[in-house]
Known about the structure:
The chain is 17% helix and 48% strand. With 106 residues, it is α+β, with helices and mostly antiparallel strands. It has one domain: Beta Barrel (Elongation Factor Tu (Ef-tu), domain 3). Strands 2-3-6-5-4-7 form a six-stranded antiparallel barrel. A hairpin with a 2-residue loop joins strand 4 (52-58) and strand 5 (61-70). The longest helix is centred in the middle third of the chain and has 11 residues, at 32-42. The radius of gyration is 13 Å and the shape is globular.
Amino acid sequence: MRKNKSLPLTLSGKIWIYPGESASWHFFTVPQKESAGIRNTYGPLARGWGSFPVQVALGETVWTTSIFPDRSSGTYLLPLKAAVRKKEGVFDGDTITVQITILVDG
C-alpha cells in the first residue's frame, strides 16, 4: 500500500523532557483539540500502541516519525530527535511551531 498524506496541522507548544531515569527524551504535546481530531478521523488506522506515522516540519528540518497516545492527558506525543533539536537550536522549555502531517495507508 502507498502512504497518503493528510492536510498538515500547524501547532505550537513547548518542548519538555520526559521525567525518569534518562533526561534525554524530548517531546512536543499535540494539543487536546487536535489530538481528538486525529483520534476521531484516523483512529481505526492506528498502528501498534495506538501510534500514527507522521511527517514533521520544524524550521528547515523535515523528518518522518510517529506520534504516540498519552492516555493520561488524552493527547498525542511527538518525540523530537536530538539531531533535529541541535540543527534547529531548540531546547527544553522552548516554544516551537511544527507542521504535522498524518501518513495513512490507502
